[in-house]
């Protein structure tokens, strides 16, 4: 129950921050001040949300995702270029095969229906 209250407080903080940002849009205050205030409210809401079980689980999931991304072996530039060229060649070949198949079917349908020259 306490987690739900904390999440509600975080949501209300975000809503109040957005409402305040637009409420003070017509004043002579600088846009920079409004953006900084909105950012501060978002940070406070984020900290409140992190105090919940859902927020903690989400934070841990994000951290473990970063660890997994660091474990990945990324291809070198030459491997990437080579794979890209192979994909482009295969797309061209398949395009030609499908175009020839389409022409063959068009001729067959025209011959069967008596249309065309």
How would you sum up this structure, described in words?
The structure is a single chain. By secondary structure, this protein is mainly alpha-helical. The chain has 2 domains: 2-71; 76-117. The chain is 84% helix and 0% strand. It is built from 4 helices and no strands. It has helices at residues 2-23, 31-50, 53-71, 77-113. Helix 1 runs antiparallel to helix 2 (31-50). The termini are far apart. The model has no long low-confidence stretch (mean pLDDT 92).
**Shape label:** elongated
* Share of residues in helices: over 70%
First-to-last CA distance: 79 Å
Uncertain segments of ≥5 residues (pLDDT<50)?
none
Secondary structure elements and pairings:
Layout (H helix, E strand, L loop, with lengths): L1 H22 L7 H20 L2 H19 L5 H37 L4
Short description:
Helix content is 84%, strand content 0%. Helix 1 packs antiparallel against helix 2.
Descriptive keywords:
single chain; 117 residues; mainly alpha; 2 domains; 84% helix
